[in-house]
Amino acid sequence: MTAEPVPAAPTAAAFQEELAGLASPEQRQKYRRYFPGDDSFVGVRMGDVFAVAGRALVMPVDQIELLLESPTHEVRAGACSIMGKAASHRSVSADRHRELYDLYLRRHDRIDSWDLVDLGAHQVVGSWLVDKPRDPLDRLAVSSFWPERRSAIVATAAFIKRRDIVDTLRLARTLVHDENDFVQKGAGWMLRYAGDVDRDALLVFLDENAAGMPRVMLRYAIEKLDPPVRAGYLAAARTP
């Protein structure tokens, strides 16, 4: 009996070809309305991008890197989705996860928007660091490249899922005066999530920092608090 051939590993070229076949002028026009001035979209629905990514989880990292180098937003979203899904898969090996983690950090120059960060930061970076020193996040948190700062705080979602909010609060203190709107929103989002684990710790953080926080960060952080409590913190906050 002859052995069945081993399936070929997914390639960047085949991935891009499949996405190109799913593009539509109508979807591209929608992206133009949502992202004015950004012509990097070709018109593939994100649901379709994620579905194609889900079938390519064993793509070698050199091929994923080729996707990251693409000028097309949906292709890079596909790369980040592959990394995030593969790193969080129940059968992922330590070697595979480490490769994905290294690629994410090494090519962060191509992970340059909030949605791309959110597709991989906690799945690839945070989950790798769960049982390791967290100092790589401290380096990201002081980067001059704002997507790296967002990655630092969003990565802590992996710790919060395990009811560990120490690094979230620590990094939020580092970012509490950040001037970038997407970093502010990411920090506020993670603070709100941390409050689900320990509401008292969130209140202590807010008592210490609310007056100096950007308003958008504060609004995200206090979203689940009782209305009178929210009103009190907003009254103390700085203007945008």
UniProtKB/TrEMBL annotation:
Coiled-coil region list: none
InterPro entries recorded: ARM-type_fold, DNA_alkylation
Top-level taxon of the source organism: Bacteria
Matches recorded under CDD domains: AlkD_like
Protein name, per record: DNA alkylation repair protein
